[in-house]
Amino acid sequence: MIDTLFSNLPFLTNGQDSSGSLFITIAMVGLVLVVFYFLIIRPQNKRQKQVQSMLSALKKGDKVVTIGGIQGVITTVKDQSVTLKVDESTKIEFQKSAIASVVDKKAAAAEKK
User: Fold this and answer.
1) How far apart are CA 23 and CA 40, in angstroms?
2) Which residues contact 71 (CB under 8 A, 6 or more apart)?
3) Is a pLDDT exceeding 60 seen at residue 10?
């Protein structure tokens, strides 16, 4: 078993023919690509889909937090932007991509108590 594990390393084979080294190399590259996909690419795609669905579901009255930390309530929703009411007399317009999260209404009610 040890001979097959190290057969692709020429300095350990003592001049033996390593006919399976190409297959082992291709298998290792494939394994690295599969691990890379499941650890990096797939979770990133899932996160991106979640963000897109959150942004498309924004509606008037949602309490949100921007990427800059500003909290407010949505007063108007446009194609690419939203207007937040951050104070009694202050409204700020943000790009939808600047919204980091929607605050859960149940969690917001629990904070007020």
Assistant:
1) 25
2) 63, 64, 65, 86, 103
3) no
Q: Where do the structural domains in the chain lie, given as residue ranges?
A: 2-55, 59-112
* Token pair for 10: 């020429």
For 13, which DSSP code? T
Measured between alpha carbons, how far is 105 from 42 in angstroms, rounded to an integer? 30
Q: Select from 57, 39, 19, 72 the least CA-distant residue to 10.
A: 19
CATH 2.30.30 fits 59-112, yes or no: yes
At 108, is the pLDDT very low, low, confident or very high (cuts 50, 70, 90)? low
Residues 6+ apart with CB under 8 A from 66: 72, 84, 94, 98, 99, 100
